[in-house]
Structure formats: C-alpha cells, structure tokens
Amino acid sequence: MDKFRIVGGRPLEGRVQISGAKNSALPCLAAALLSSGTVTFHNLPYVRDIITMRRLLEDLGCGVLMPEQATLKVTASNIEFFEAPYELVKSMRASVLALGPLLARFGEARVSLPGGCAIGQRPVDLHLRALEVLGAVISLENGTIVARAGRLKGANVFFPKITVTGTENLMMAASLAEGVTVLDNAAREPEIEDLAELLNKMGARVTGAGTSTIRIEGVEKLGGAGHTIIPDRIETGTFLAAAALTGGELELCNCRPDHLGSVIAHMRQAGVHIEQPNQFTLNVHANGGLKALDIVTQEYPGFPTDMQAQYMALMTRAEGTSVITENIFENRFMHASELARMGARIHIQGKQAIVEGGGRMTGAKVQASDLRASASLVVAGLAADGETIVDRVYHIDRGYEKIEEKLRSVGGQIERFRE
Ligand code: EPZ
Asked: Judging by DSSP bridges, how do beta strands 273-278 and 295-296 pair with one another?
C-alpha cells in the first residue's frame, strides 16, 4: 500500500497548474450515456475516480478512446447492459450517476446501492424519490436499485434537502423526459452549471443551472458534443491552504477564483494574502501571522465541506481558537485525531471542532481515512517539523492528480513509497 514520506518546514514557492474538476468530470462522463453520439471531454484529471468511471462506461458497452492525455472520447451507441455492479459502486459511490441517464434513455437501470463511506451514510433516497416523481418504478433487490420506466414524464420535483449528485441525476433523467421538469431547491455548485452546459451542447434544454430552480424541457434525442471540464476548485483551495500553512508563495494557474468566493473571503479574513491578477489565476502568500476564524460548512456558495479538513489544518497554526462547524456530513472529523497525533489541539463536540491554534505541529505517522482528510494530513505534514508518514494514500489518489509531483515542483519534500 502506497505511503507518503514528507519532511516539513520548507515554504512552498512557485507555480502550480490546477487540473480539471473530478466532481464535474464524473457527472459529465455519465451524461455521455444519454446519447448514441460521441462526446469528447478535455481537461479530465488523471485520478482514480475517473479511471473507475471509464471502466463503468466500458462495462456498460461504451466505446472509450483516449487520443491524448486528459482527453476521452466516449460513444454510447452499443449499450448492452444497464447495470452498475457492486464492485464498481462500492469503490466509487458516484457510480449512482449512471442511474438517471440509463433510465431516461433505455427505461431500465440497475445500480448497486452505494454503501456508506468514512464520512457518512451517504444515502441516495432523494435521488430515488425524485425519479419516482418522473414516473420511475423503483425497487431494491438484493442490494441493487432496480429502476424501470416507460418514457419518463416531466414534473415538478422538490428536494427536501440539497443534494449535488441528486440534482445531477435528475437533470440528466429529465433531459429525455416528455415535457418540462422543474427542480426546486436544487444544488447550485459550479459543477451543476458545467453539466448543464454539456447537456445543452448535446441538444438538451436546461435553464437556471447555478440557481435553486432548474428547468429542463425534455427532448426526444441528444447528440454528441465536445466539452472542457472546469478547473477543480477544491484542488485550488487545497493549494491555497498549503501555501498559507507553510508560509510560502504560490501562483495557481488555470483555476477559477470565481468558484471559490467563500474560501477566498475566509482565508483573507484569517490573514492569508490572496491576489487575483486575472480571471484564471490566483497568487497566494502568507508572510504575516494567521488569525483564528470560525467557519460553518454549507451548500454552495457557502464554505464547501470538501475544504473543511484542509482549513482545520490551517487553523492549527492561527493565533487564537477557531470553531469549525460541519453541517453537511455526519462524520467528517476523522482527520482531527490524526492531526492531534502531530500535536494539534482539537476538541470535537458534535458537529463542531474547536481548534486551539498557535501551535507548531511535529511530524508523525498518520493514516488517511477519506479523500479530503488525506489532503489535510499532507498539508499539515508539509508545515510540521520533522518527518510525517501518511498511510493509505490511495484515498488522495481518488481526487488529486500527481499531487506529490506538483508539490515537489514548488519545493515540497514529499515522496511516495510502498511498504
Ligand atoms: C457531492 O457528493 C460530492 N461528490 C462530494 O464530494 C461533496 O462533499 C458533496 O457533494 C457535498 O458538496 C461528487 O460530486 C461526486 P450530497 P453527494 O448528495 O452528491 C445527504 C469529494 O470529496 N443526502 O450533496 O453524494 C447526504 O448524506 C466528495 O470530492 C441524503 O440524505 O453529496 C449529505 O448529508 C466527498 N439523501 C447531504 O445530503 C440523498 O439521497 C449532501 O449530500 C442524497 C444526499
């Protein structure tokens, strides 16, 4: 099992190219199932979840070509199976994104019920109830979601809770339904807008993406398209935290600062110097002290839960005590006990983590539990005195492209090894 050996204490300095967003690429790749045409994707991140999604598409019968790095051509003209099997779904719950497209195009879909994961139960009940509103008949057979429908019928859908992939599944299903669907209390993430842009290029009629109310006028058929995936806002935020925590200076290229409003505002208020020289670049440096600042994670455009762990690492260095409230997932503080092994002083009380800052962390052996927790431990290791060994780095490989190469290119002392 791969591990990282990190020697901390050196400020990160230089230029980092941000990769495409995994959480946009996943629904966009699933959307290719809606058409018998070819969809060409550019700026795909080379991460494990994208490899898993590619395997799922090929297992379903899609033709997938990779003419060059970061590009995939997907053609779903010979779909023979309509099932996302357990071994794929258990390794990536976002496989549930195949449900909407398969059901809408073929009237049938079987997706293994995604289990929970380290950060929480992760149910998909909101996806299923909403698909039933569009006329799907859904049952659970031996741990597999079995969905059937004639042609789905457009309808008004209200999400009692905001769900990102639930919104994405319904946008895709509704794009081939008969009539108009309105999604109320929809997720507003930039990844939703990116999916809507792709669907409209394929011939769909989606309006309102990025707001809480999305309108989809169903069409008979969708065609092929070309699409460039938006930059990864969470990778960008992770490098902002790494620069700030190590007291360094980074230029982040090919990013979208406008997708990180809440993160940039909070970090600036905490004393991180962040400039935006143009629409696709951020310059970050932290030569002054950091001040403790509370955050509350919320759905977009609030502070993203996917940045909570990295921000906690940052607050261990800030002057004063900060309170981090996690509102989205019920168990997303596992990184706190690992950071404590490095000397952080963090007290968990229900949905809140109280971080006593001002300390200097020391290297230790730590274990990653999920994708963003592992990013938090890497960032902490880069700033800690001495050596940190991060175990189970397969978690970080799910969502960060070449992270150790990128960090080494800006002075980070990090190497991957296998024990
Ligand atoms: C997406 O997960 C992201 N994944 C997650 O990123 C991200 O943390 C999350 O949105 C929140 O922003 C992808 O986009 C592939 P939700 P998703 O449905 O869609 C509850 C990462 O690190 N809920 O918005 O699964 C759920 O339990 C990953 O890149 C239901 O109760 O999240 C959670 O408490 C981790 N029933 C809340 O809603 C449902 O049917 C938000 O979940 C669906 C969700």
From this structure: unpaired
Is 0.70 topped by the overall pTM?
A: yes
Q: Mean pLDDT per segment of 10 residues, for the chain of length 419 residues? A: 95 98 98 98 97 96 95 95 89 94 97 83 93 97 94 98 98 98 98 98 98 98 98 98 97 98 98 98 90 98 98 97 97 96 98 95 96 97 98 96 98 96
Probe residue for ligand 1, chosen from 47, 122, 188, 403 as the CB with the greatest number of ligand atoms within 8 Å: 122
What is d(CA 245, CA 272) in angstroms, rounded to the nearest whole number?
9
Cβ distance 361 to 380 under 8 Å? yes
CB 44 within 8 A of CB 25: yes
Nearest CA to ligand 1 atom 38: 163
Residue nearest to atom 8 of ligand 1 (CA): 306
Q: Is 121 buried (19+), middle (13-18) or exposed (0-12) by CB count in 10 A?
A: exposed
Eight-state DSSP code of residue 254: S
